[in-house]
Design goal:
The longest helix has 27 residues. By secondary structure, the protein is of the alpha/beta class. It has 16 helices and 18 strands. Helices cover about 40% and strands about 20% of the residues. It has two domains: about 180 residues, Endonuclease, Chain A, CATH 3.30.870; about 160 residues, 2-Layer Sandwich (Endonuclease, Chain A).
């Protein structure tokens, strides 16, 4: 009797679940192929299809971010400059202006710092000379020789009576091993918080909604940002360093320092769980009309800022006239970015992509190789840089535009992480970064379509399977 009842009960339940799941996919999936695939799965697999859609098909990341990350920190001034006198940045400057609804911010000086050998002494010197506040924000903070030097410097700043605050991503902190830096920071009395911490009680094991932002703000004078974390791995000159990384970071001065401090204080307020209103943030640096460099801070994340950096890259690549040079550690671009790169190449733009030949995340490297065939078919130049692992992130367009910051060209960075980008409008900075790019390209090995096509069947299957999981790599 029970078996007969189940036979009558299961079909209508399956129909109801399939209809509800299919309707949700139809209304919410923006990609027709994804919507069709989920609808087919819900109809073909009784019960299991709708259950799989419930677990894997519904995007909870963006809704969770919009619920939890609601921080408003108003500024005492929204003063920006749309067209600085004597400059010709349009149409490239128009893209970011439309996305973030603000013009450009002046920058008095940009110092390009390669690898930990140049970066860490500059950061530690700035902390040692600080007179008011030191704000540090990073994804990875290793508890090694380099990390301990920073802890000592931060503790010394505290002893001088300075305001010191440190934010480390809750999952990125685990990359340094079980001996996390947070316990040491707290033991030394340094104000510290984790961005979306990983905890067992209460359970919070989400690998998404990570903050990949990196910045150090010292007084109202310096802001450091780019791709580098804090740890011995970034000391590239140590040939016995098994996990050494090449990277590039920037020290900025001027009004852009205030913009980055504003971003830090918003995230600090969020991490501390304080939902009370904040008094307006006060700027300390003027917007100088005679500035040698103009900038714009672009914040991105799975909250209301979703897709800003993807759309920014798409817009400036589409507006390029002479050059699009990309350096990224992880290359898993969206289809619209591949289309923009192809269109630029067809317009006669010099499109070049530099990737690391030695990657620290093997599945990301395999998935990238699955995509490269489509890129190479458009005659876009792609090359692998020799080891060690190159973590640098650059987008160089024409002769005056450079995009730097924490963003990789992959779905995790562009859709799931909180990131930051800084647009730099300067012919001199663009020239320096192009020289850096050219030096790396001179020792890189071009990738050919014949090489990609000659992969053995097991290798192609491996790369294709890795590509299926590319949104989560």
């Amino acid at each position: 009797m029970l078996e007969t009842s189940l036979l009558w009960f299961i079909p209508p339940v399956h129909i109801v679940m399939a209809v509800l799941a299919s309707g949700h996919a139809l209304l919410n999936k923006m990609d027709s192929r994804a919507a069709f695939g989920w609808i087919a799965l819900c109809i073909i697999l009784p019960l299991m299809g709708p259950i799989l859609y419930l677990i894997f098909g519904i995007n909870r990341v963006n809704s969770a971010a919009r619920r939890h990350y609601v921080i408003k920190l108003h500024k005492d001034s929204t003063e920006t400059v749309t067209e600085p006198p004597g400059t010709h940045f349009r149409p490239l400057s128009t893209v970011g202006e439309k996305l973030v609804q603000k013009g450009l911010t002046s920058c008095d000086d940009v110092n390009i710092l390669q690898n930990g050998e140049a970066l860490y002494p500059a950061m530690l010197e700035a902390i040692a000379e600080a007179r008011h506040h030191v704000l540090l924000y990073t994804y990875i903070f290793d508890r090694d020789e380099t990390g301990l030097r920073f802890v000592d410097a931060l503790a010394a700043a505290m002893e001088r009576g300075l305001e010191v605050k440190v934010i480390v991503d809750g999952m990125g902190e685990w990359n340094g091993g079980l001996r996390r830096i947070g316990s040491l920071l707290r033991r030394r009395g340094i104000p510290f918080t984790r961005f979306n911490p990983i905890t067992l009680l209460p359970p919070a094991l989400n690998i998404n909604l990570r903050s990949h932002r990196k910045m150090l703000i010292v007084d109202n004078r310096y802001a450091f940002t780019g791709g580098s974390n804090i740890g011995d791995r970034h000391l590239a000159d140590r040939e016995n360093n098994a996990h050494r990384v090449l990277d590039i970071h920037f020290r900025l001065q001027g009004r852009i320092v205030d913009e980055l401090e504003w971003a830090f204080r918003r995230d600090w307020h969020y991490c501390k769980g304080n939902r009370s209103p904040l008094s307006p943030f006060k700027h300390s640096n003027p917007n100088r009309l005679d500035a040698p460099v103009w900038t714009r801070l672009v914040l991105d994340g799975p909250n209301k800022s979703l897709d800003r950096l993807n759309d920014l890259m798409l817009g400036v690549i589409s507006a390029a006239r002479t050059r699009v040079w990309i350096m990224t550690p992880y290359f898993l671009p969206t289809l619209d970015l591949i289309g923009a790169l192809t269109a630029a190449q067809l317009r006669g733009v010099d499109v070049q992509i530099l990737l690391p030949g030695l990657n620290n995340i093997k599945p990301a490297h395999w998935a990238s190789r699955n995509i490269l065939r489509q890129v190479l078919e458009s005659d876009i130049q792609v090359a692998y840089q020799p080891g060690p692992f190159v973590h640098a992130k650059l987008l160089l367009v024409d002769e005056q535009y450079s995009l730097v910051g924490s963003t990789n060209m992959d779905p995790r960075s562009l859709r799931l992480n909180y990131e930051l980008g800084v647009e730099l409008f300067s012919a001199d900075i663009n020239r320096q970064l192009c020289e850096y790019f050219s030096k790396r390209r001179a020792i890189a090995s071009p990738i050919t379509r014949a090489e990609i096509d000659s992969r053995a069947l097991p290798e192609r299957l491996r790369d294709s399977i890795a590509w299926l999981f590319s949104p989560y790599l």
